[in-house]
Automatic annotation (TrEMBL):
Residues 85-109, 331-369 are annotated as: Disordered. The lineage of its organism: Eukaryota, Fungi, Dikarya, Ascomycota, Pezizomycotina. GO terms for cellular component: endoplasmic reticulum. This is UBX domain-containing protein. It comes from Calycina marina. Residues 336-369 have a biased composition (Basic and acidic residues). CDD domains: UBA_TAP-C_like (cd14273), UBX (cd01767). InterPro entries: Thioredoxin-like_sf (IPR036249), UAS (IPR006577), UBA-like_sf (IPR009060), Ubiquitin-like_domsf (IPR029071), UBX_dom (IPR001012), UBX_domain-protein (IPR050730).
Length: 508
């Protein structure tokens, strides 16, 4: 059943911390991690167990998780006869069977029980004592009156919810606890070249699983007399340090002090009964549901040569299996990389085809635009020529007729045209310079008699003369927009040259 989507901002602070811890271990997306945590009542260890081992989790553990109570550790009860029978039955099975390597998730910071301040503890001591006495009284009464509600019954599992820190050792995060143990060994025993993994047990287990390496778990307890001598004589000996540091053995060494919370949980999960304790863990997908199994356990002090021989035997026995898995994984990675390269090549080829199609389309659109622009320019030029001719017909019809030579107010102008033709014409003295330009512009129409008497002035057209009238000595340019009559500007007579005005493109 699909669970509704929940935004992370809507979760409480404890739920967000549980979500971050669960994601850091499983590498899931928040949308996938939230439903698993909801089904586990936001208990991270149960959610991780569901993720790695499936959804078949004990219902009692889920009920306790719903009440924020971690599931109690089941006590193992057996006698010597049961142990002998179980051992003989296990040995009768076909082939050696390795135990599954447990996955230990550190307890969240908000669930770690810390020792209160001495003054605060002293102040609240009477209240704590009264609470214990009242709880004891209610527990005694509820024992004889079982029909009382559950609220008045004592919580028999309360003592197992958290591990009390009675040693006075400060609780740290897994990475900090590993760094502290390494520092303590260096300070107490001197020089140390053993490559301790400075991180949590879960991270070391994941690295060993992903990189197909051997995880060497070392658990120590300072309360045992043999621990100090074994570390000095065996662990820090040159043979053991060289063996663990040898890259060919592919060993990841994780060490823990059972006084720390994570190391204590690991020792309980690995069924540690004697210190110093060593467990060799490796990837065994055919023999383990979690794909990580304990290959061998070494308990108690032993000489360095014996310690190395037992580890070497277990490593040699399992190296072939790891090599097979590594070759299979490399082949899968090669196939995956090959598919990715093929997909990338296809995507590049597709992108090139798209780019060529885009350039072709742009070139076609640009050619069409250029063709349309040229067509529009040609139409505009033809329209301009048509309006120019219409204006010339209209202006030729409105040119002032040439006055008689007998009239007193007459100006005689000689025009030298570009075609070497010389024209002499009389104009009224009160005519403007523009009349000279209009006559020159319309001379051919007037001279050849191709005048259209029905022509009208074109709308929206402003005529521009493509020539200018110039006198030579001295050189004076007469503009059609000049103010004044012909008589005022030129005099009773004048010789003018018609100079063609060339555009910049024509000049070039």
């Amino acid at each position: 059943m699909a669970s509704p989507e929940i935004e992370i901002a809507q979760l409480s602070e404890e739920q967000q911390q549980a979500l971050q811890q669960f994601i850091s271990v499983t590498d899931l997306e928040p949308a996938t991690a939230v439903p698993i945590l909801q089904r586990s009542h936001w208990n991270v260890p149960i959610a991780i167990a569901k993720f790695f081992d499936g959804e078949s989790v004990d219902s009692v553990a889920e009920d306790l998780a719903a009440q924020n109570v971690p599931p109690p550790r089941v006590a193992r009860q057996e006698n010597l006869q049961d142990s002998f029978l179980s051992g003989s039955s296990a040995s009768s099975r076909s082939g050696p069977q390795n135990d599954d390597a447990p996955r230990i998730v550190p307890q969240p910071d908000n669930q770690i029980a810390t020792r209160p301040n001495f003054i605060i503890g002293l102040i609240f001591a009477p209240f704590s004592l009264a609470y214990r006495l009242i709880s004891l009284a209610f527990g005694f009464i509820s024992y004889f009156l079982p029909f009382l509600p559950r609220t008045f019954r004592p919580n028999l599992t309360a003592g197992t919810t958290r591990q009390a820190n009675i040693s006075g050792r400060r609780a740290l995060k897994p990475r900090d606890a590993a760094a502290r143990l390494k520092r303590e060994i260096e300070e107490e025993y001197g020089g140390n070249t053993v490559p301790f993994y400075e991180g949590g047990y879960a991270q070391a287990l994941d690295i060993a699983k992903n990189d197909l390496k051997f995880l060497l778990v070392l658990l120590t307890s300072p309360e045992h007399d043999d621990t100090s001598s074994w570390i000095r004589e065996a662990l820090l000996s040159g043979e053991v340090q060289s063996f663990i540091s040898n890259p060919a053995n592919e060993i990841i060494l994780w060490a823990g002090d059972v006084r720390d919370s994570e190391a204590y949980q690991v020792s309980s999960a690995l069924k540690c009964s004697k210190f110093p304790f060593t467990a060799l863990i490796a990837h065994t997908p055919q023999q383990s549901t979690t794909s990580m199994s304990v290959l061998t356990r070494l308990t108690g002090p032993m000489p360095a040569t014996t310690y190395i021989a037992k580890l070497q035997t277990a490593i040699t026995t399992h190296s072939e299996q790891l090599r097979t898995v590594r070759e299979t994984r490399n082949a899968q990675n090669f196939e995956r990389n090959l598919r990715q390269e093929q997909d990338s090549a296809y995507e590049r080829s597709l992108a090139q085809d798209r780019e060529r199609a885009r350039l072709k389309k742009e070139a076609k659109a640009q050619a069409a635009a250029e063709e349309k622009r040229a067509k529009d320019a040609a139409e505009a030029a033809a329209n301009l020529i048509e309006k120019r001719n219409q204006w010339r017909q209209w202006r030729a019809r409105n040119v002032i007729p040439e006055p008689s030579a007998d009239l007193p107010d007459v100006v005689r102008i000689a025009l030298k045209l570009p075609e070497a033709a010389r024209i002499i014409r009389r104009f009224p003295s009160n005519s403007g310079i523009e009349e000279l330009y209009a006559f020159t512009e319309c001379y051919e129409i007037l001279h050849h008699g191709s005048l259209d008497n029905t022509a009208v002035k074109p709308d929206g057209y402003e005529h521009k003369f493509d020539f200018r009238l110039v006198s030579t000595l001295p050189r004076v340019v007469y503009d059609p927009s000049d103010v004044g009559t012909i008589a005022e500007r030129i005099g009773k007579s004048g010789n003018l040259i018609v100079e063609t005005i060339l555009d910049e493109d024509d000049d070039e």
